[in-house]
Amino acid sequence: MIYVPIGTAGHVDHGKTSLIKVLTGIDTDRLPEEKSRGMSIDIGFAFLDFPEEGIRVEFIDVPGHESFIKNTISYCGKTLPCLRKPNPSASL
């Protein structure tokens, strides 16, 4: 299986978590406080499998609010390499 990590990062209320939920059916906001506040506080994870192609796309959803920047930075080293513009001539 080929694993394709994709990190989402941006300002709060830009729909990062909602987009991932629509794509995967997985809500990356799992903490009760996240549910009550309506915003991500901690890193969230989701995935989308393409079994015929042998591909799993893994989503890393980081908080966008400045109060939780430490949580975002904790995964920056793993997320930033995934934010590069894809090379259309490269094959998986």
TrEMBL record:
Residue ranges of every copy of the Tr-type G domain listed in the record: 5-73
Keywords for this protein: Elongation factor, GTP-binding, Nucleotide-binding, Protein biosynthesis
GO-annotated cellular components: cytosol
GO molecular function: GTP binding; GTPase activity; selenocysteine insertion sequence binding; translation elongation factor activity; tRNA binding
InterPro entries: eIF2G, G_TR_CS, P-loop_NTPase, T_Tr_GTP-bd_dom
Annotated PROSITE patterns: G_TR_1
Family matches, as Pfam families: GTP_EFTU (PF00009)
Protein's UniProt keywords contain Nucleotide-binding: yes
Entry's Gene Ontology BP terms: selenocysteine incorporation; selenocysteine metabolic process
Protein name from the UniProt record: Elongation factor Tu GTP binding domain-containing protein
Species per Swiss-Prot/TrEMBL record: Thermocrinis minervae
